[in-house]
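Protocol step 4 of 6: record predicted structures for both targets in the notebook before any analysis. Target 1:
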Amino acid sequence: MKAWPTKLPMLSALFFNTKLFRKAMNTFNRIFKIATVLVFCIGFAQNTEAQFLKKLGKKAEKAAERAVERRVEKETTKKTEAAMDSILEPGKDGKNTKKPTTKAEKKSESDENSTGVSQKENGNSSASGAGSESIQIYRKFDFVPGDELLFYDDLSNDFIGDFPSKWNTNGSGELTKINEDTNKWLKIVPGYNTNYIPDLTDLPEEFTLEFDVIADGLNNKTSSQAYLKILVGDNNNFNKPKNMGMVEYPLCQFIDPGTIVENNVNGTREIRNAIKVDIRQVVLKKHHISVAVNKQRFRMWINELKLVDIPRLLPANVAMKGIKLQLRGTDINRENIYLSNFKIAKGGSDLRRTLISEGRVSTNGILFNSGSATILPQSMGIIRQISQVLLQETTMNLNIVGHTDSDGDEKANKTLSQRRAEAVRSALIDIYNIPSARLSAEGKGESEPVGDNSTAEGKSKNRRVEFVKQ
């Protein structure tokens, strides 16, 4: 703004010397001459007619004057605004007036970029998408899914409009499709005592839970009491557990009411708190929930963000029997909550010790887009642990082996498994800087199944990645 006074002569010159102004004045002169001729002609007419024509001539003259003034004002304003833009906001006129970026500036921008990888590098990355922004955001994600599958339901075996067969509820719900998404989704309804319970009992001391959520229709009118609850308790029925731990995360948009954590020990509440972490923008989009239970410890992530990590949320020495999901506070007429891709697995504590002690580890926690070698970001916790082993054990080399289920062509599956193994290898190289010479990749397709390919659970077990010490 300090430069503004020095620009006034420029604007003045633009206004008075523009070609448009001169053109407008020429037009005015021509119209004036015509009007003059009309007035001259009036002198030869009869008295009454002459006065009429004289008035008409004056009106024509004034009309022409006003027309010219309006046009000059309009065009001059337009040119003046353009001049103002060129002074105050260079480049706004569509011309590229920005100086070329120097090498130092490019480096600075790269350092400030949280992904640490340029768009050009992203484009040249492997089929894994290992250089993509979403993958890079998850580079410090430390959730590791369990390695023994207990419950899996992508809802593929149930019909649209039905309630899924592997679940129980005392409320209502139905399977639906959402736009072009290929998955089926369970639409749930709110209620203070409405539970959605997967058919699974006798949970181990250490297990993980994962699922996807779409929250549609949320806006500034969404209640501050709108929450989605994940509860782990000592029963899997509709009664309130006497021993339990739970987390409720908010769906409200006009304020951040906080993520609620609570427990019961022998029917007595010992913990109740609201953790302030603003996730309002996160819940507007499709998001992934990850939960890890290690005895009393309860951790929960939303996408790559760790929301909760409480060392003694669950009661000590009490067997947990079930998982319950509850929705409350949403408006059933305009706000819809959908769930899908449920996975509960035993373990999930640490793959690093297994790899070091046994020289190999197998996991179905590295996930890919269907039919592709694009790694899903939530898989990065496992890849990160593998990188930590390699950084510690500097003489260890690994062969990465990809496996698929039997869906599709056998030859295509072998090719896909090879590409997926190479994608994991690329992620270790590109993101965690593991030397490429220490890693090899191999694809075995559907040739070595460990589960029944006729069931969703079996297929999930067969889609796995192995790391084998060489």
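Target 2:
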Amino acid sequence: MKKVSILGSTGSIGTQSLEVCEKHGFEITALAAHSSIDTLENQARKFKPKYVGIYNENKYSELKKRLADTNIKILCGMDGLCKIASLEENDIVLNSVVGMVGLLPTLVAINSGKDVALANKETLVAGGKLVMSLANKKNVNIYPVDSEHSAIFQCLQGNKREQLNKIILTASGGPFYGYNYEQLKNVTKADALCHPNWDMGNKITIDSATLMNKGLEFIEAKWLFDLKPEQIEIIVHRQSVIHSAVEYKDFAVIAQLGVPDMKIPIQYALLYPDRVECPTKQLSLTDYGTLTFAKPDYETFKCLSTAIEAISRGGAFPCLINSANEEAVKAFLNDEIEFIQIGEIVSSVLEKFEYSNISGYDDVIKADRIAREFVKNTIS
């Protein structure tokens, strides 16, 4: 029986991961969430983990009181996340927390020799060099949970890595596909939170609307698969059936297809290399009938082009634009800025900051701090 700890258990990925774990009889060692104690309490009572963590320390006392009738140990804050990530009994740690919070627990899990199923984008965007170097040193596997990176990982199986020519990342295009810059000025928060294909949390849904999500995935792919930026192509595929593809030296292209359901990549990460029945629908290509492809609009969707430029420059730039985006999205969701301003703020980071190196975790934290301060000062 595989023993799994889940960071971010109350979010979309976390709840679907628990569904997969339940189907296959995995033991849940620990669960952690940011602040959703109602859902976390219900999960704790159902799955009976040894540990439960709550990142928001203001919620710790209430959660501890609610679970006082159980034998579950309650942890809190970043220390709690890191404790869960490093538990000796873990076979694998699934990290699906949102934001920069996910980086340190990932590093701790790897340093403890634990395999990681990674759904936290910021881990590789902000600290890709640190994470991959440590994973190689500790001989730890990082299994991608994002549907696009899982697709690439699957398409690479059974083939020689040196024969890879490029990868093709597919993007749904979000709710504003085909909009021009002027049209984006008039979109509302409700419009931006309405994704055509995927049911996700607010932050990632906004990132999908700005195409920042695809920019972050571009950066992740560079680190996960040890690629040069010019080896990564993005295409808009509105139906989200082809989750991504790889092209080999002979120009053969292998793609992974499936219904838009995150349980497929979650299960592949947790059960790799086995394939068994998944709690999702089967794909019927005839139901779709037509699959379409187009080039992204890099000029209108500034977040996408900014992310690609950031990883091309290297150093702290990916971390800077990621943290700036987190603050800008937060401001948009709080009705402090307009949708169009997210891209404008994020792209301005490339103009305001000079190159600096990332040689350790402290460098990431410093870049994160100054980027957030920059955005807050820009908005105020």
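Step 5 preliminary note on target 2. The first strand starts at residue 3 and ends at 7. The CA atoms of residues 165 and 251 lie 8 Å apart.
Proceed to step 6 after PI sign-off.
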